Amino acid sequence: MSSLSLAVRDSSTMLRRNLLHARRYPSLTLNLLLSPVVLLLLFVYIFGDVMSAGIGDGGADRSAYLAYLVPGVLLMTIGSTTIGSAVSVATDMTEGIIARFRTMAIHRGSVLVGHVVGSVLQCVMSVVLVGAVAVAIGFRATDATALDWLLAVGLLTLVSVALTWIAVGMGLSSPNAEAASNNALPLMVLPLLSSAFVPVDAMPGWFQPIAEYQPFTPAIETLRGLLLGTEIGHNGWLAVVWCVGLAVLGYVWSTSLFAREPK
């Protein structure tokens, strides 16, 4: 078999392994998935009227705030799901299975590829589930065309790949699963400091540059524009640049850490 065929075969095997682990131990994924769902329901049904009045023209419109909120919650779902990837990678590194893989005739990069592809698939499934909850409580993207939906799916996938590679690097650099969970926490906290819940213009002046130019805000505004027809402006290319940059950084960081021989 060629080197490429071996890499694909071994990566597929590692992908099946990670998906089986996720199916047999679903508690971590469910716990991470519950956070964005709870925040969605909390902000819509508890704070919805107040928030919509505060960022709108003074009138309370919970449905309008739901439409504003959903794109940010979908991005937050990806961030929270990738925390599970960091924990999974750290668990593999500390329980000795990676040392066993190093002695076997398998493609060296297949272990990381299996984790990344498995995590991206979990992100997609999590986004679908949270999106279903949003639709069930009234979210509609009636102005989105087929091309808009295609671009939205592409953006969500690109964000999933970028954040997963960063999470894998965090898992490899952590001494145990608990530390990996803590190190990857910014992936779920950063959306709280973006335009997910309120517009950047409504934030304190000193904080606006932080919120505007962090990775999540451009992606949220781009997704919001695709689904709701709002202005995207420079956020589209900025989101792509952030995603590609983070993906490359995470890939280089992860592969360099994984290539180190165990002490």
From TrEMBL:
Q: Which domain of life is it from?
A: Bacteria
Bilayer topology annotation: Multi-pass membrane protein
**Which keywords label this protein?**
Antibiotic resistance, Cell membrane, Membrane, Transmembrane, Transmembrane helix, Transport
Ranges for domain ABC transmembrane type-2: 27-261
Q: Where are the transmembrane segments?
A: 25-48, 68-90, 111-137, 149-172, 184-207, 236-259
Q: What is this protein called?
A: Transport permease protein
UniProt subcellular location? Cell membrane; Membrane
Instruction: Describe the family membership recorded for this protein in Swiss-Prot or TrEMBL.
Output: Belongs to the ABC-2 integral membrane protein family.
Q: Coiled-coil region(s) at which residues?
A: none
> Its principal location?
membrane
| InterPro entries according to UniProt | ABC2_TM, ABC2_TM_bact-type, ABC_2_transport, Nod_factor_ABC_transporter
